[in-house]
Model the fold of this input.
Amino acid sequence: MENQIFELQYAMDTFYFLVMGAFVMWMAAGFAMLEAGLVRSKNTTEILTKNVALYAIACTMYLIVGYELMYGGGIMLSGITTVAEMDDAAIAQVLVDSAEEGFDGGAVYSGASDFFFQVVFVATAMSIVSGAVAERMKLWAFLAFAVVMTAVIYPIEGGWTWGGNSVFGLFELSYSDYAGSGIVHLAGASAALAGVLLLGPRKGKYSATGAAQAIPGANLPLATLGTFILWMGWFGFNGGSTLKLGGIGVANEVANVFLNTNAAAAGGLIAALIVAQLKFGKADLTMALNGALAGLVAITAEPADPSPLLATIIGAIGGVIVVFSILTIDKLKIDDPVGAISVHGVVGIFGIFAVLLSDPDATFMGQLIGMLTIFIWVFVTSLIVWFILKTVIGIRVSEEEEIEGVDLSECGMEAYPEFVSQ
Amino acid sequence: MKLVTAIIKPFKLDDVREALSEIGVQGITVTEVKGFGRQKGHTELYRGAEYVVDFLPKVKLEIAIAASLLDQTLEAITKAANTGKIGDGKIFVTDLSQIIRIRTGETGEEAI
Done:
């Protein structure tokens, strides 16, 4: 009887990882649509190509070596149990492991489902970079960076945090980050920032006096759709990070995570919309969209413990921060067409410290050192990789190509061939 | 023969087209254009950055007519396109030296 319950728990927890992983995969579509909506029509094909390709590269490089670096899953996933290897002896071993954990212990599930759930997080981190460098970066330089980020940079810091590895054997982190405000979002934003600093702003973005010029996105319906897709996918991002479903306490935790994730997004959107209205006198849709995402990033480090009200407030604070951050980053003449550095980086940092509002076990120093470790590692290594790419193959398209649109120079294909008049 | 070029507000296109049909004009060419006269543009806002939209969308009609129809054509367009508000547009009249119907090779007023 006990064994049958273990079998069910194994099946349920494996299924849970797979479905939550599929939700996070859906976020790739969200990013693609959001970014496609916020760039100009002449640059839309290229950003879509970047998005589909980086997803595929992330899946492949993490399979080859990333998962091994982060969790010791074996090069080419040699450490996980294949279908052929799941014989009666292996099943019996699973039942032994389950008995050891007990009904309320750690989840026991298929190694393949663990990889599947982890790999989509890598893709999410990488995807954050594509929006910030949009409209002026060479496609293949970006993809080359993606190879390094998903094979090495992200897995190493993921190993120090979720993987439990010590940092170069020097110290261990006592850092709490449920679903990755720092590990995924700040990391992506750090890589983005390094790239943007070496890339430079789009032509015409800043006037001679340094004032930011408007370069409106071509398709706000797509941007809105993308945001809703990300919102829904985030239920998998945070919900799956509970890592187990089969049990009363843990199922309730999952339910709270879904609830809080949704509440934070709502709080973030409302706050950003109000701030935009007060500051600009207009209801800026793009700020509202960024606000919802900021709310989601803010709650990601601790979506289980807060009360629903606190989760809404945390999201709202994220929404307020993101609007001011976007304006400030523009004032620093750092050109980020979609606000990725603000949404995922600045608010990611807030999310890391927001953990302290509801988790009694987290410490300020633990969060601070974790945040700095992630930021410094990712930023510095990214800067080095971007710099090498810039020197060897160049990372920016030529001025003519930028004016003509990277759709033609990088992809040879227009996104809206019948609508574009120039 | 005359070529009448009219720049009007886009939402007035249907009214002008009907008015021209009523006086017997059988063909027009329409282009979407942008422009400004004394109407000037307006300011829009994107993520905190203001930008001026100088050029406003307009519609340009080109109508080839017999010189005898000129006054009625001008009156029809003016009446139908008028809103009384700034930005109603302008009409330009030029002489048309030759017209050819491509399908049949007819020329002159028969080709209108």
